[in-house]
Amino acid sequence: MAVFKFHVPILDDIKSKGLIPALLYKTNEAVERITAGLDIEDIRSVLRGDPAPRPNPRVRPHADGFWFHMRPTYYHNLTHGLYPSFRLGWLSVYFFVFEILTGLVLMVFYTPSPLVAYENMLNILGDVPFGRLMRDTHKLGAEVMVIVVLLHMLRTLITGNYKKPRQFTWVTGVILLLVTLFLAFSGYLLPWDQLSLWAVTIGASMAGAVPLAGDTIDLIMRGAPGAFNEDGLLRWYLAHVLLLPLVGIVFFGVHYYKVVIHGHSLPPEAEPVGEDTAKRVPTDQRTYFMPDVLTKELLYVSLVTMLLVVATVFFYHAPLEPHADLLLTPLHTTAPWYFLWLQGMLKLGDKVLWGVIVPTNIIPGILFVLPYFEVGPSRRYGDRRVGLTIIMLSVAAMAVLSYMGTPHYAVSSSPDQEVVAALVPQTHPGPLRDANWDELNHPGAYEAALWNTAPSPTLKELLKIYNEEMIRAADNAKCRAAKNCLVDGRGYFIVEKWQADLLRITFRVIWAGGPQGGAICQLGAKNEFCQNVYLHRHSDYGQGE
Amino acid sequence: MTWRVIVGTLSLMVTMIVLGFVAVTEQDRMASFTRAYESRKVEVGGAIFENNCARCHGLDGKGSGLAPALNAQDLFDGSRLAAAGWAGTTEDYVRGTIASGRPRPSAFYADLGYPERMPTWGAQFGGPLRTDQVEALVAYIMNWASDYAGATPQAVPTVVPVGADITVALPAGDAANGETLAKSVGCAACHIDLAGTGAPLIGPAWLPAADPDGKSIGARAEERYQEAGYAGKATSPEQYLFESIVDPNVHIVEGDYKNPDGTSKMPKIYSTSLDQQMVADLIAYLQTIK
């Protein structure tokens, strides 16, 4: 009597059928189990686009498999092309998954602590193979995802899909929009560079304007009163990698379930006014998920991934500024572009009204309740002229507000500092740091107005910009209003050989009443502005970071 | 369907080729990023130096009456480290000094009389600068090193240990050298109230003012080896001082100078860390203290 029976069925198959046929048979069987119903020949037939055999094995994965069960077995002929959905919802999911995958890789090399977070970035960029690619694609994917989700919402507004019976789908969509925005925004802080710290500080400080609870919210968000510390960073990190993705996954589940339950809605002109025929797809109007939709989606995955990879390898690199410094606010700090409208609104007036009530109550509030109040039966464009006009005006208003959020609008600053910031901005490398070091390596003192006499083309170019900025600072609408134009201004540019491979460049701007002769750049001198910049031969700001 | 498969496959191939390109060039890219970042550290360090260090060390790092030069050959050729008894690299010396500061004016510079202590700069020791800023400063200061590359280090004395045999004949001592040595090898810390705080000394006082009997170390050496309770082997004042330095356990004078195990509190390192000339210089110096 054997203690246990050891039986390998494939050995029997090999004995009866021979090695190769038995292995092929087993492989086929495994594929059929994994796809929950399709064997190798079925898959090849799907990819060839053969007409479905009867009985149709291609519906079996929809019935038996977990992943395909979520997808409809067939679509209406009018809904699976580019119009009317532009596949924006699908693209949002693609980016969500893409961000999770790249984010997981980045998490491996990241510690949420102000002591090491920035060093982690340097490690990812300088020591981790494919590290920069992961960071760049994660960042670019996030930016594109924000665009895609916004366009998805805009498209839904335009085609009127928020109307009955899809009101709740719309509500979950608004939640997903907020999740997307906050995911992108919370990720902004994690590199712990100047860009991230101050962009997020703008957002976080608005929360401090909330009546009554403002200080508490600010403390919870930043970890210390009025300043980010390690607790604040940890909270933003946990929100970014746990809370928001979880909320996103839950509401994505609800959202997509509702989409499938109600059916992908038809273009507005394709169905009678007031009717929703998406659920009943006539047999002659059906496009089956397999093969058409599936192959299209595989194509999209392949294509979009390719575009992302090519874009990040050759064209786009996520910025990384100097280490976050709580004591040094860079000139012209802005919120991320998708929150510029908020920064623009803040310039309209009251911080509580424009920074809290409108953006966090009124705008999301209108979006949440929109489908329950806007109950006109028709989705047709011709019947919704007022609604579509309001949508377009809102888009235009957002664009205008976003412009107002940039430093070009209503930001007072000293013209002397602006002149220097045009050459060495505090938020990105700028013309001087990007310039060829060897061509800068001509020690001497130069004057902006005499740019044409500079010894190298690069110096000439920089001094020319300098001179143009000096001329602008001498007279423009902004400085006339602020009464701080640089009368009789002169700009000097002093290059000193400082150390091996290191130049020290001094910008010195003086204007009427400034020091004449004598020592330059003395502390407390009037009508004189000096700024030093050190430039190393190999600092190579052209790499993108 | 056909073009979908073709475009999809082509896209996949392009992705793989681009990723392959990244894989091939990644080593160089990482190296160039690291070099660029190291260079940017020097730039950042320059600005921090100008704002925080230049007041005492000079904008050009050549030093001032307030603090020693950093843009100087002796820092980079090893001679300053040797004189300070520092066994690590210059970079570590600079980093440690910036980060933790100096709790008191360095004995090494005592004769130059810098009036201020090096403040603590590193945030981990209570200073104002983050670790990356300290690192940037180190990079900036170390960037001066290349100006002194190839400079021959000033001779670092190699020590032939003097040993514990007090009967060997020592060379003639130089009291002035001995006085400098007393500060740099650590004697003064326990035997002289350098800081003038009036706190009790750890070892027997050298200066008569701090001795209970009002006698200097030189005067005591004259008498001690002839006293009744003397347990050592010295037969002259010089041998007595020699013995006290290299073999302090043989005779421990009365007072609180013993460890709990009954040995002398005097470090037992000098028979191996000093050479004959150094001991001779020290003895000569001690005998001049009257």
Q: Which strand order does the major sheet of chain A show?
A: 5-6-7-8
Quaternary state reads heterodimer
Q: What's the total count of β strands of chain B?
A: 0
In CATH, the topology of the largest domain in chain B is named Cytochrome Bc1 Complex, Chain D, domain 2
- The CATH class of the largest domain in chain A is identified as Mainly Alpha
**CATH architecture descriptor text of the largest domain in chain A:** Up-down Bundle
Count of helices of chain A?
21
Find the CATH topology of the largest domain in chain A. Cytochrome Bc1 Complex, Chain C
Average pLDDT of chain B, rounded to a whole number, is: 85
CATH superfamily grouping of the largest domain in chain B? Cytochrome c-like domain
Distance between the termini of chain A: 72 Å
Can you give a write-up of this model?
The complex is a heterodimer of chains A (545) and B (290). In chain A, 34% of the residues are buried. The mean pLDDT of chain A is 90. In chain A, the strands form three sheets. Chain A has a four-stranded antiparallel sheet. In chain A, strand 2 (223-224) and strand 3 (227-228) form a beta hairpin. The longest helix of chain A is centred in the middle third of the chain and has 33 residues, at 230-262. Chain A folds into three domains: 9-69, no CATH class; 88-321, Cytochrome Bc1 Complex, Chain C; 415-543, no CATH class. By secondary structure, chain A is α+β, with helices and mostly antiparallel strands. Chain A has helices spanning 9-17, 19-34, 40-48, 60-64, 66-69, 88-108, 117-126, 131-158, 167-189, 194-207, 214-222, 230-262, 289-314, 340-346, 351-373, 385-405, 415-423, 430-434, 437-440, 457-474, 477-482; strands at residues 74-76, 223-224, 227-228, 286-288, 444-447, 490-499, 502-510, 528-536. Chain A contains 21 helices and eight strands. In chain B, helix 1 crosses helix 5 (131-142) and helix 9 (237-246) packs across helix 11 (276-288). Chain B folds into two domains: 2-148, Cytochrome c-like domain (Cytochrome Bc1 Complex, Chain D, domain 2, Orthogonal Bundle), CATH 1.10.760.10; 175-288, Cytochrome c-like domain (Cytochrome Bc1 Complex, Chain D, domain 2), CATH 1.10.760. Chain B starts with a helix and ends with a helix. With 290 residues, chain B is mainly alpha-helical. Classes of the chains: A alpha+beta (545), B mainly alpha (290). Chains A and B meet through helix 7, helix 8, helix 13 and strand 8 of A and helix 1 and helix 5 of B.
